[in-house]
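hey
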C-alpha cells in the first residue's frame, strides 16, 4: 500500500474530524503515511490533531498526524495536498447569502453573486497555496475540496503547473437523493453525471437495470414528500435527465428567491448556531476511551470528504478506478472547450486522473451549462489576476445576475463586506 505524505489545508475546520475519520476507515490503504494538518486557528488545529491521534491509537491505525500553522512547513515534501478551507468563515458565507437576497437575487454559497465572491476569496488563497507547492512539493497533487471547486480548479489549471483535481460528492448523491424523494431505493440507481460542478446532468440513468425517467414520471401522479420533491422530479422528467439539485436556483429562480427570503436565517447562520456543539462534541471524544463521532454532532456527518480519500487511494495505489472528478476536459466532453474544467467520470490510477470520453450533456441542458461554463472561465480569470471592472463583467455573465445595474450593486456591497479577504486590485 502507498506510504505517502499528505497535507490537509483546513485541518482545523469543523469538517476536519470527519475527514480524518474517513482516512482512518481506509488506514490500511495508507499504512505508514504521514498526514500534516494546517490551519490558521492554532487552538482548533491542535484539538483536531489530538483527536485524530487518539482515534488512530484506539483503532490501531498505522497513520502519523502532526499539525502546524506554517503552510510551507506543512507542504514540504508532500505527495498530495487536500485543500478544504473557507476564507472569512461562516460569517463571510452568511454575507454571500444575505446581501444578494436583500436585492431579490439568489444568495448561495456556490451559485450567483454569493458563489462568485466565495470564488474570489478561495482563489486568492489558492494562488498562494500553489506558489508554495511549486516551491516545496512541485510534484504533489492538489486535491481540492474548496468551493466553488470548479472555479478553483480552473484558475489553478490555467495558471500553475501544479496538477489539480477538484472533488465533490454531488454526482454520486444527486441521483440517490432524487430516487429517495420518489420513494425508490437509492441503492438500485446507476447514473453517469456530466457537465460542470453543481451543474451536472445524467448522460444515462437506470433503476434496477431499467430506464429511470419513466419511473419518475409515474411518481408525479402520486403523493410526494413536499414541493421541492415535486419540483426536482418534474425538472428531471421535463429535461429528460437527472439534474444536480442546484439547478433549482436557475430553473425555479423566482420560487427559490421567495423561499430563501421568507426564512428568518440563512444556511450559514443555521450552521453557525450548531458550531459550538460540534467543538464540544470533539472535545468530549478527545477524552473518551472509545472516541466515536456522532453524526448529529459532527459537521457533515461521521465521514467527510470521502471521495477525496477514495481518489487518493486510487491515485497512489494505482487502482484504475472510475470516480467523478473535476479536471481539464482535454476533449472528453464535446459540449465544452478542451481547456475547460469539467465534471464527469474519470479513470484514476498512478498515471493521473483522466476524464472518460464519449458522454454528452443532455440537449435541453446544453444552453444553460454552456453559459455557466463561460461564467466559470471569466470568474477564474478575474479571481486569479483580474481587475474590479473585469469582475463586474464576470458577475453580469452569471445567469443568476444578468443585468448590469444588479451586478454593479451586488459587487459594490459584497466587495466592501469582504474587503479583508480580497486582493486590493478587486476593491
Amino acid at each position: 500500500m502507498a506510504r505517502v505524505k499528505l497535507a490537509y489545508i483546513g485541518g482545523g475546520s469543523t469538517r476536519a474530524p470527519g475527514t480524518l475519520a474517513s482516512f482512518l476507515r481506509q488506514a490500511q490503504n495508507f499504512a505508514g503515511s504521514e498526514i500534516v494538518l494546517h490551519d490558521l486557528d492554532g487552538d482548533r488545529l491542535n484539538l483536531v490533531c489530538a483527536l485524530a491521534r487518539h482515534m488512530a491509537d484506539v483503532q490501531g491505525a498505522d497513520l502519523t498526524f502532526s499539525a502546524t500553522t506554517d503552510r510551507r512547513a506543512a507542504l514540504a515534501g508532500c505527495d498530495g495536498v487536500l485543500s478544504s478551507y473557507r476564507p472569512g468563515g461562516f460569517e463571510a458565507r452568511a454575507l454571500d447569502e444575505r446581501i444578494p437576497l436583500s436585492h431579490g437575487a439568489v444568495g448561495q454559497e456556490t451559485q450567483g453573486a454569493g458563489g462568485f465572491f466565495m470564488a474570489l476569496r478561495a482563489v486568492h488563497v489558492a494562488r498562494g497555496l500553489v506558489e508554495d507547492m511549486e516551491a516545496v512539493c512541485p510534484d504533489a497533487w492538489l486535491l481540492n475540496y474548496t468551493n466553488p471547486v470548479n472555479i478553483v480548479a480552473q484558475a489553478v489549471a490555467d495558471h500553475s503547473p501544479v496538477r489539480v483535481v477538484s472533488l465533490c460528492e454531488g454526482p454520486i448523491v444527486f441521483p440517490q437523493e432524487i430516487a429517495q424523494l420518489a420513494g425508490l431505493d437509492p441503492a438500485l440507481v446507476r447514473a453517469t453525471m456530466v457537465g460542470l460542478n453543481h451543474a451536472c446532468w445524467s448522460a444515462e440513468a437506470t433503476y434496477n437495470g431499467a430506464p429511470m425517467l419513466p419511473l419518475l414520471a409515474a411518481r408525479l401522479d402520486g403523493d410526494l414528500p413536499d414541493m421541492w420533491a415535486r419540483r426536482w422530479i418534474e425538472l428531471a422528467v421535463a429535461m429528460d435527465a437527472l439534474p444536480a439539485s442546484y439547478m433549482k436556483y436557475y430553473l425555479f429562480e423566482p420560487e427559490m428567491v421567495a423561499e430563501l427570503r421568507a426564512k428568518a436565517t440563512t444556511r450559514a447562520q443555521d450552521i453557525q448556531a450548531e458550531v459550538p456543539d460540534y467543538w464540544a462534541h470533539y472535545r468530549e471524544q478527545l477524552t473518551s476511551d472509545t472516541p466515536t463521532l456522532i453524526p448529529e454532532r459532527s459537521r457533515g456527518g461521521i465521514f467527510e470528504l470521502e471521495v477525496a480519500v477514495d481518489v487518493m487511494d486510487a491515485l497512489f495505489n494505482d487502482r484504475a478506478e472510475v470516480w467523478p472528478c473535476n479536471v481539464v476536459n482535454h476533449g472528453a466532453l464535446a459540449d465544452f472547450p478542451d481547456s475547460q474544467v469539467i465534471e464527469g467520470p474519470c479513470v484514476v490510477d498512478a498515471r493521473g486522473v483522466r476524464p472518460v470520453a464519449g458522454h454528452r450533456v443532455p440537449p435541453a441542458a446544453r444552453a444553460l451549462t454552456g453559459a455557466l461554463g463561460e461564467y466559470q472561465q471569466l470568474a477564474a480569470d478575474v479571481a486569479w489576476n483580474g481587475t474590479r471592472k473585469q469582475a463586474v463583467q464576470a458577475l453580469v455573465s452569471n445567469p443568476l445576475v444578468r443585468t448590469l445595474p444588479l451586478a454593479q450593486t451586488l459587487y459594490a456591497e459584497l466587495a466592501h463586506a469582504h474587503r479583508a479577504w480580497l486582493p486590493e486590485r478587486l476593491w
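DSSP finds 16 helices and twelve strands in the chain. The first strand starts at residue 5 and ends at 9.
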